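Why run this: before we spend reagent on co-expression, it is cheaper to look at a predicted model of the complex and decide which construct boundaries make sense. The entries below are exactly what would go into the expression plan.
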Amino acid sequence: MQDRRKAIFELIEQKDEVSIHELEALFPGVSSMTLRRDLDYLENEHKIIKIKGGAKSLSHLSRSILQDVEGDYAQREILNADKKRKIAEKAAPLAEAGRSIFIDAGSTMMQLARRLHSGRFSVITNGVNVALEMSQNKSATVNLVGGELNRNNLCVSGAGALDHIQDINIDIAFMAASCFSLENGFTNGSFDEYKLKQQVIKKAKKTIVLMDSTKIGKSMPYTFCRPEDVDVLVLDQEPDDALRLAAKEAGMEII
Amino acid sequence: MQDRRKAIFELIEQKDEVSIHELEALFPGVSSMTLRRDLDYLENEHKIIKIKGGAKSLSHLSRSILQDVEGDYAQREILNADKKRKIAEKAAPLAEAGRSIFIDAGSTMMQLARRLHSGRFSVITNGVNVALEMSQNKSATVNLVGGELNRNNLCVSGAGALDHIQDINIDIAFMAASCFSLENGFTNGSFDEYKLKQQVIKKAKKTIVLMDSTKIGKSMPYTFCRPEDVDVLVLDQEPDDALRLAAKEAGMEII
DNA sequence: CATACCTATGTTATTATATAACATTTCCAT
DNA sequence: ATGGAAATGTTATATAATAACATAGGTATG
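The model came back. Tokens follow.
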């Protein structure tokens, strides 16, 4: 019995999800009731979670979970998940293998990390969820910035984080922006994160900002950079003329 | 519509799990089909997971998941979960509120963190899962050590981690030991983690080691401390006479 | 302001799935 | 051998999910 349960568990680990019917086909010797009971058992052991018609792997879930644990912030932003995916897809090819890349914290960056599951990167990040996601990529080394953990967005910042960045070389920095306006540039709302972003951008050879278009025209307290500091801005849609012009003047490419 | 969906999501976040029937009672204005569609939507957004008859919070799952994500090591060690819980229960009261405490990485420490959900602690840790767990305690500040992330045990270590510790005061250090023997003292198997442990113990006013009894009499490459450096050793069972004697000589209390 | 159109929602019938309760088998210890 | 516990099977029943179509409400457009 334990053998069968172990086999079922391993199958689920491997496939992420199985249906009772698949299990029936795979274990013709036992009844579906027994298989259900096996799933009950594994669920009680916190190894899987039962869903209608089958079961899912918990450890696979852990991946998709962390991108959304980001508390209040994420809750407000729930609507823009599509845009974020679109942006991340456009930005992912800009990460050249073999390079040292910084990945900012935030849900858009989490989407980016999910698209970097292969390739030899040296990643440094202040997003705990980004770090965990990138650790799925066996050929990447993941460096996590130290400092105080913000429980709302799973972001690490503070003085310790600044020191940490100091001695690390960054080829490409992927940054998230809370807002952008022509007057104030790229802004965000936390002092500690603002300091860290500034520091990273100063150190990075190339800076890429990812932002969804709903954030354009708004502004937050801290300006962490302006278009002239940015090499590429990744948006989910075409910029309007004013932004296009400003970007051209500042030498910022928009994709 | 978005309001309702947000309310449902928040309800699930709060309660961990809801049934369709509960939702029907809570939203008498809409049909159950609509509520099902809301759950479909939230599941698509990776905010919840649907189960038969209702839905579950993903972020609540993340708690139970992370303690088991610890790769091969954890899978081998899963058998001692009971002992770990027992140890953690004995150790938790030693964490005095208001103090600066270090919590080592590892699954025993994860169990400890789960028992510190209330109380005003200033926590510093090198375990990513410990940090996430402690961030559930709203009155704790959580400081995460920076450095390279070990994908197997979600532990952060390396030179960056050492620097980070340098400037932080630690009242009580809760340390995990891979092995203990009378000849070699407390040992573990990773150089980077060994350096970090040493540093932490040097800085800590009080050192408490948590270890399950299956690890006694074995030994690993790096000795990070000896009984005379330890104030309290927390075991799951009574020590044998040899250990008891050695502890007495070294001034190490065993509980 | 009427029209079409899209989105959200509701209704119902149908299908699929889970559960409970009881029956049977298997295996182990005595 | 035999009692009993654990595992598994069977069936009827209850429960939930889905599909397909129907309706309502809002809004952009001529």
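Chain A has two domains: 2-62, 67-254. Residues 67-254 of chain A form a domain with the Rossmann fold fold (CATH 3.40.50.1360). Bring this page to Monday's planning discussion.
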